[in-house]
Amino acid sequence: MGSATGTASIRRVATLETESQVGGLIRAWRERRRLSQLQLAAQAEVSTRHLSFLETGRSRPTREMIERLATHLDVPLRERNELMLSAGYAPRYGQRDPDAPELRAVMDAFRTLLDAHLPHPALVLDRCWDVVDRNTATDVLLEGCAPELLEPPVNAIRISLHPDGLAPRIRNLGQWRGHLLSQIRSRSAATGDPRLRSLLDEVSAYPCRDTGIAARADVVVPLRLGVGDTEFSFFSVTTSAMSATDVTIDELHIEAFYPADEATARAFRAP
């Protein structure tokens, strides 16, 4: 039978390990944002000494301190929950299924935007660009893709760059590929999500001989897509719910495609 002193020692070791774990995560997020301890301490209005103690595990942050630092470090909600768990607290933000009743109002709003965007393509995508919802105009984008790429969850990046997906029909594949890879790198750096790094490694390996040089007339990166003998040209606009307090909603965004030239606009206006 263990002594009271032995039990207390075990608890103290466990506490130190927890404090060290959350401190390491705070430091990793600070370094990811390229902030010094002095800069973050000034922004969060805490002492540099206290921040140093938190990062090294000499002090345990309160829930309020974790939230304050996470806000100044622009930590996404999923990763804020991980910070809470690493400090021994319950997650602060819910993560519901898109079909959950609590999310109905927001998901209905997304669906309204998708339908209102017709006759142009639009999709609801999650953090890793998996398709959550889409309007009927996206059928033109998916035409001719291999059936296995259309098995849920459909990934918009994968299906765009895969040689059995849209890639053979994208006339400016190198340019569009460069744009998508840049988006993944940026989001991966912002979130630290290993799933995004895995996606980047996968799609970067797909073949592409196009140099990706932008046309002088381009003001945005277009998606130039061949459909039969016709070429459509689109640019995309992203919309998200900026006030989300649920992880699922925080990670959703609408990718809406607009005609980038008059010929495409006329084609989609035609009955």
From TrEMBL:
The residue ranges of the HTH cro/C1-type domain are 26-80
> Tell me, what is one Gene Ontology molecular-function annotation carried by this entry?
DNA binding
Q: Mind telling me which InterPro entries this protein's record contains?
A: Cro/C1-type_HTH (IPR001387), Lambda_DNA-bd_dom_sf (IPR010982), MLTR_LBD (IPR041413)
Q: List the PROSITE patterns.
A: HTH_CROC1
**Gene3D superfamilies in alphabetical order:** 3.30.450.180, lambda repressor-like DNA-binding domains
The coiled-coil regions, if any, are none
- Spell out the protein name for this chain: Helix-turn-helix domain-containing protein
User: What species does this protein belong to?
Assistant: Nocardia speluncae
